[in-house]
Write a structure and sequence with these properties.
The complex is a heterodimer of chains A (495) and B (420).
Chain A lengths: L13 E9 L3 H10 L6 E4 L16 E2 L10 H20 L3 E2 L3 E5 L5 H14 L5 E3 L1 H7 L9 E5 L3 E3 L1 H14 L3 E3 L4 E6 L4 E5 L2 E10 L5 H6 L8 E11 L10 E4 L9 E4 L5 E4 L3 E2 L10 H14 L9 E12 L5 E4 L6 E5 L5 H18 L25 H10 L6 E3 L4 E2 H9 L5 H8 L12 H12 L18 E2 L7
Parallel strand pairs in A: 1-2, 1-12, 2-9, 5-14, 12-20
Antiparallel strand pairs in A: 3-8, 4-8, 5-7, 6-7, 10-11, 11-12, 13-16, 13-17, 13-18, 14-15, 15-16, 19-20, 21-22
Chain B lengths: L1 E8 L3 H12 L5 E4 L15 E3 L8 E2 H15 L2 E3 L3 E6 L3 E6 L3 E12 L3 E3 L2 H4 L9 E3 H11 L1 E2 L3 E5 L3 H12 L3 E6 L9 H8 L6 E2 L2 E7 L6 E6 L12 E4 L2 E4 L3 E3 L2 H6 L3 E2 L4 E2 L12 E3 L10 H19 L6 E7 L3 E5 L2 E4 L6 E7 L3 E10 L2 E11 L5 E5 L1 H7 L4 E8 L3
Parallel strand pairs in B: 1-2, 1-8, 2-5, 8-22, 10-18, 12-13, 12-18, 13-14, 23-30
Antiparallel strand pairs in B: 3-4, 6-7, 7-8, 9-19, 15-16, 16-17, 20-21, 23-25, 24-26, 26-29, 27-28, 27-30
Bound molecules: flavin-adenine dinucleotide.
Flavin-adenine dinucleotide binds next to helix 1, strand 18 and helix 8 of chain A.
Chain lengths: 495, 420
């Protein structure tokens, strides 16, 4: 199997790096992998116990075609170029990627104006093959769509991906190519001396020439560590509902409503894993950790699904709801530039939507800035772009299944019945860095199915405990505070 | 390639009942495929009593009840494969299963009995808003943790749903030192058996709050509390009725769903009201060599009924293998205040046995009669002082009534008030 080591490289009290990246979201991870193409000492730091648990964990997972943003902004400029490289990136990293296309659906004739505007954006941004669909075309492409729909704006290059799956793969590949990954490590302060920037972290000090601030919602606080806050980041909520794959096929395209000034609107999306989701809302909040959904928000997104597909009894298929937070900068655009206060510090902040799509383009822009700022790049001759996914029982051919089980009998032991995940997959996920229930879930889909972990939770806890040599009572959902077990049942040792 | 006469998918009480009966009827090769590490299904985590009152006339615990059947199955020569999951059923007779010792297995079989049981509805299914902290468990998961792994999932608990598992867990949690702050039930009446309301909640002074539901969930890492609110008749939350209850654990006992993902792929017809296959009195599905029994067909109140359903399925498989086909079918229609009924059809055989119908009402009523009507005319009725959705009604229908029914293509079952 893969030889990528687990996360959390042992850390000396003082260490040195050429580049330190704060934040292991899709942005930090993409930059880390880019840097691993060169002979550099790179360190990727995150405060959470796993990678990609910020904005990257909970979003719509769409690789946008690139027409929806103002072409004069960075968000507009970097989207289509990001989209273009995804196919190859996902092949190299063995990450599922489906170029299924998206359609913006208008419900009244007036909205045709907005659709024409989108088409104009598409032209400026170089988005290929978009076109406006008339009523008949629209309904023949999406048979279950509400009869009220009149026009559609079709963009065939839009795609879907698992954002955390991608991020995990990027980090594994970066690691295999020499990047050090430090999780559960919070950056507390930055100090500049004559030669370097010194990061004060909860795991010790890092001396480095360059710091990439890819801290998502907390990027403003990192900027403040340079002496002065250069911008503010405001969280904006997006709530979703997730449906069971038992709905059967409803649409093979991503369905958008016509955009509003604050958001691309609500989306009905076939997730890359095969089930549907609807969301997000767009609600500003104060608290950067407020991932709560609301009665109002959930009702709004459910209404959307029911309105667009009136024949489908969606309520019956709900398996979950969740919320993500967009990091919005004051200027409502990406901030990708060197710090004004501290030489060597580079901000990659305000990476709201379409940040996932733009990530590869953002990374190249950051590489240019780094070179501009004096980073010397020598190619890493050992760079290997290929990362292997954890082989899965589910969906594989009979022969492959047979081979997997023959090589490792634990592939024959299915622990998650809804998603058909074997014990071998769980063990490999742990070897690659999962230490919590959520860590296993995001790497294997254990517990993501219709029973939402009802059956497999005790099993996964057992495997985690056995493989990591920690007592069952210490297994958590996602971090220390999210304990699952209070104590052993009293007297149980005596029975 | 393996071969069998009957493959039973699921080794809980339904599967065990079917397996034992099949052997007793002289069927040669009877194979149970069970995904768990032991036979007995959910029974091993149900360490409370109340099992077997009907079947054995004895008050047994879950494990005792299961053990009787496991031993019987062994004695009768039932074969079983544990830790084995069925991946596919192909052409109604080829089963693809997998485990770690045999690897992938293809099993050719004459008949199949589906006995996969059910799963619990989750928070997602009822779409409660709020955060997603640790500390939210389905009642069955918590039961497994406590009774089988000796692990206590939390100390101060709110239980949503007054179904039997919820009620039993309220008592169990109290016994192991947790504080159950409330059992919250959305309906205006409890949804578990009356004996459980009394013995599990009232006897321990645990408040059972009716017409309420959990409206929000708090806590970033571990659950810190929930709000509950009053529900009006239309199911809406009454304004300003919300109340916060601090707790570290929320148990959900909000219903069970028959596990029919495998069944669906075979193409058998499912009933939208039971969420299970559409069966006749021998638990035969709409594919003649596939049978279904136990909680995969509908959620039963008592394990005793489940065992009986398993036995019927084995009899059905036996009849099928003997080549005895049925001549005619009578559909059972749901009339006034009937939520669900099993079997959904009767098949007529030359030699007819009495048939048991298991049904549930939509809402509680007092002083009623449960009747079967043929073209508007009553051919059977039974008086009931009270009917409740939580308590399954069992009707035993004689061969004489069946003969009357068989003169048409459908009969209707309904609940009516009666005048003395
Ligand atoms: C609801 C929603 C829907 C979206 N939909 C899409 C979409 O469909 N398509 C698309 O292209 N984009 C979408 N986006 C945008 C996309 O999700 C983001 O642009 C992207 O995930 C941002 O990644 P990031 O790496 O910048 O931030 P994050 O993923 O938030 O990563 C930041 C990381 O920094 C770490 N960190 C912060 N402070 C510190 C510190 N002091 N020390 C150490 N570590 C620290 C955090 O723990 C976190 O892991 C959506 C966003 C949201 C919220």
């Amino acid at each position: 199997m893969s030889d990528s080591p687990a996360l959390g490289t042992p850390f000396l009290k003082e260490s040195r790096a050429d580049v330190a990246i704060i934040g292991s979201g899709v942005i930090g991870a993409t930059i880390a992998r880019e840097l691993s193409r060169y002979k550099l000492n790179t360190i990727l730091i995150d405060k959470e116990v796993d990678v990609g648990w910020g904005a990257t964990k909970a979003n719509t997972g769409i690789i946008h075609a690139g027409y929806s943003e103002d072409p004069h902004t960075l968000r507009g400029k970097l989207c289509a170029p990001g989209n273009r490289v995804y196919q190859q990136l996902c092949e190299e990293l063995e990450v599922p990627f489906k170029r299924i296309g998206s359609i913006v659906v208008s419900l009244n004739k007036e909205e045709i104006q907005t659709l024409c505007e989108l088409e104009n954006h598409a032209k400026i941004c170089g988005v290929p093959e978009t076109r406006i669909l008339n009523r008949d075309e629209l309904h023949s492409v999406i048979p279950h769509l509400t009869p009220k729909a009149v026009y559609g704006f079709y963009a065939p290059t839009a795609a879907t991906i698992s954002p955390y799956g991608l991020t995990i793969a990027l980090v594994e590949n970066a690691q295999a190519n020499g990047v050090n990954v430090l999780i559960q490590t919070k950056v507390l302060g930055l100090k500049k001396n004559r030669q370097a920037i010194i990061l004060n972290t909860t795991s010790g000090y890092v001396h480095t020439n360059f710091v990439i601030n890819a801290a998502g919602l907390w990027a403003d606080e990192i900027s403040a560590m340079s002496g002065e806050k250069e911008f503010n980041i405001h969280p904006r909520k997006g709530e979703y509902i997730l449906f069971d794959d038992a709905t059967g096929e409803i649409t093979d395209k991503i369905i958008f409503s016509v955009p509003t000034p604050v958001s691309k609107g609500i989306v009905f999306v076939p997730f890359v894993e095969g089930n549907y989701a609807v969301g997000p809302t767009a609600e500003d909040t104060e608290d950067k950790e407020d991932l709560s959904t609301s009665f109002k928000g959930l009702k709004k997104v459910l209404n959307f699904a029911e309105y667009f597909f009136p024949e489908i009894p969606f309520k019956r298929y709900i398996i979950n709801n969740f919320c993500g937070l967009r990091p919005i900068a004051d200027e409502n655009d990406f901030i990708i530039r060197p710090s004004y206060n501290m030489k060597g510090l580079i901000h990659v902040a305000g990476i709201q939507s379409p940040g996932l799509t733009a990530a590869p383009a953002i990374a190249s822009m950051v590489m240019d800035i780094l070179m501009d700022q004096g980073l010397k790049l020598t190619l890493n001759p050992y760079f290997n772009p290929i990362r292997r996914a954890i082989p899965q029982i589910k969906g594989s051919e009979y022969k492959t299944k047979e081979k997997l089980i023959k090589a490792n009998s634990k592939y024959g032991h299915i622990v998650c019945r809804c998603e058909t995940v074997s014990e071998a997959e769980v063990i490999e996920a742990i070897r690659r860095g999962a230490t919590t229930l959520d860590g296993v879930k995001f790497r294997t889909r254990c517990g993501m199915g219709r029973c939402q972990g009802g059956f497999c939770t005790p099993r996964i806890m057992e495997i985690l405990s056995r493989e990591l040599h920690i007592p069952l009572e210490e297994i958590s959902k996602r971090n220390k505070g999210s304990w699952l077990i209070k104590n052993k049942v009293l007297g149980s040792d005596n029975v | 390639m393996y071969k069998a006469n009957v493959v039973i998918i699921g080794g809980g009480p339904a599967g065990l009942g079917a397996a034992c009966k099949a052997k007793e009827l002289g069927i040669e090769k009877v194979l149970i495929l069970e995904r768990d590490r032991e036979l007995g299904g959910i029974l091993f985590q149900c360490i409370h009593n109340g099992f077997g009152l009907q079947y054995f006339n004895e008050d047994l615990t879950g494990p005792e009840y299961a053990t009787r059947f496991i031993q019987k199955a062994q004695k009768l020569g039932v074969e079983s494969k544990l830790n084995t999951i069925v991946l596919e059923i192909n052409n109604n007779k080829k089963i693809l299963a997998v485990n770690s010792s045999d690897g992938l297995m293809e099993i050719n079989t004459e008949t199949i009995i589906l006995a996969m049981g059910c799963r619990e509805r989750t928070r997602g299914a009822i779409n409660i808003p709020g955060t997603r902290p640790a500390g939210i468990f389905t009642a069955g998961t918590a039961q497994r943790l406590i009774n089988m792994e000796n692990l206590l999932p939390g100390k101060s608990v709110v239980i949503l749903g007054s179904g039997d598992i919820g009620l039993i867990m309220a008592r169990r949690l109290t016994w192991v030192g947790a504080k159950v702050k409330a059992i919250v039930e959305m309906l205006p009446y409890p949804s578990g058996l009356t004996r459980n309301v009394v013995q599990c909640a009232e006897d321990y002074d645990i408040p059972l709050i009716l017409s309420h539901t959990v409206t929000n969930i708090y806590g970033k890492k571990r659950l810190t509390g929930v709000t509950i609110g009053k529900v009006d008749e239309e199911g809406n939350i009454v304004r300003k009725s919300e109340k916060y209850i601090p707790c570290d654990t929320l148990l959900l006992s909000v219903g069970l769903i028959p596990e029919n993902e495998l069944s669906k792929n075979t193409g058998i017809k499912l009933d939208a009201d039971t969420n299970g296959p559409f069966v006749n009195q021998y638990m035969q599905t709409t594919i003649p060599n596939i049978f279904a029994c136990g909680n995969v067909t509908q959620v039963y109140d008592l394990v005793d009924y489940v065992t009986e359903a398993g036995e019927l399925a084995a009899e059905g498989a036996h009849l099928y293998m003997k080549g005895l086909t049925n001549s005619k079918t009578v559909l059972i229609k749901k009339g006034r205040n009937i939520r669900q009924i099993v079997p959904q059809r009767i098949s007529l055989y030359e030699r007819q046995k009495p048939i048991r119908f298991y049904l549930r009402v939509q809402y509680p009523e007092e002083k009623v009669k449960v009747g079967i009507y043929k073209e508007g005319k009553e051919i059977f009725s039974k008086k009931q002082l009270i009917v409740r959705p939580s308590e399954m009604i069992v009707l035993e229908i004689s061969d004489e009534v069946i003969r009357k029914a068989s003169e048409t293509n459908e009969v209707t079952v309904k609940i009516n008030g009666y005048r003395n």
